[in-house]
Amino acid sequence: MNPITIFKQTHLSNLFFQVLAGVAFTFLAGYFVPAVGAIAEILFFGFVVIFGIDLVLIFSKKEAVSGKRFVPKRLSNGDENIIRLQISNRYNFGIRAEIVDEIPHQFQIRDFSIPADLKANETQEFTYELRPTERGEYDFGNINVFANTAIGFIKRKISTHASQMVPVYPSFIQMRKFEMYAISNRLTDVGIKKIRRVGHTMEFDQIKEYVRGDDVRSINWKATARANDLMVNQYQDERSQNVINVIDTGRVMKMPFEGLHLLDYAINTSLVISNIALIKDDKAGLVTFSNNDSVVVKPEKKRTHIQRIQEALYKVDTNFLESDYERLVVSLKKHVNQRSLVLLYTNFETFSSMERQLPYLQRIARDHLLVTIFFENTEMTKLLHKEASTIGQIYTKTIAEKFTYEKKQIVKALNQHGIQTILTPPKELSVNAINKYLELKAHGLI
């Protein structure tokens, strides 16, 4: 093997320096006690021989260790994604190894390593999880293995070229989770509350047993007499309704909570809602707005339409400017001709910020069923539950209470103007948005 390569791959372990220090200390003692000096020479000779044996063993094979990385074609934003590593030991003896995968810089993990013991000619698989918090391209580097024999004086760095780029998309893991429950009508299993149906369409579906909360007007008395139990007619929801997710991409959506920006919470939920709407045979669409450019995906009913929405959401980004709600009104009038359920993801921190946009929200609500979704500041909520013991803490808690009260006033004011609202913690956004969608369908409002 090339001496330069050997030099580059050789890393002396802590054990090497500890033993060398011990030999040096023995030589120092031999300066004062001559008998110890002879022992020091024997120890040094043995140390050199063992070091040579270790060097020969660890470099006895050119391609001694190899590695493979198995990464999904795309990662899911905000979720734990499983990465697999396959490491093969081609030595004829067992080794201890430290596996260092060069993970993308976005994670800022600088102490990543996996310890392992590999037997002779053995292949092992290792897994770890990564949770991205930004959409975009993530570059993985090489797989590095620091291998050493049982002697442990030398660590040989063996690198496997494994560079690859993986895109991070809006949370398709969350989308699939809710899709599974929506298909099997088990959304209540993941915290979606059961909505009592107030009215129904005239499209008959099936006869089923009466359960508490069913509309008594739907009781089928003939079927009840035959079954000797209360039976009711079940009707299908109205279909082919427009469900438009409208996302504010202005500066108010830049605020981070638990690693994710509000924009990413909105994007992940928009993907979930769009997918469930398509499963329910509704049409799903997407509109983004800020102060200049906007993205519009017109509502369609095809199941493949979710791919277009996902690609559009992947490219959405926010800026530090205030959003133009008048531009949103114009965009909806231009691209959405049918009365639709409009889920508007934005954020109002103060009552005055909502008042400035209220005329535009009222204009949208005249043409569509508007649901304004904005976020609780969970950090302020934590402050409210802390006990204040100093003047500074009292001031801070008072300000937090003021902002929390303003949020409640915003909800009240919007409801008084006939605008539906959702005030939610960021982590509970998907569940609360699905609840609202199902509730409005159950009430026949869309």
From TrEMBL:
Keyword set, alphabetical order: Membrane, Transmembrane, Transmembrane helix
Domain of life from the UniProt record: Bacteria
Record has Membrane as a keyword: yes
Residue spans crossing the bilayer: 12-32, 38-59
Domain DUF58 residues, every copy: 207-358
Coiled-coil residue spans: none
InterPro entries given in the database record: DUF58, vWFA_dom_sf
Pfam families named in the record: DUF58 (PF01882)
Protein name (record): DUF58 domain-containing protein
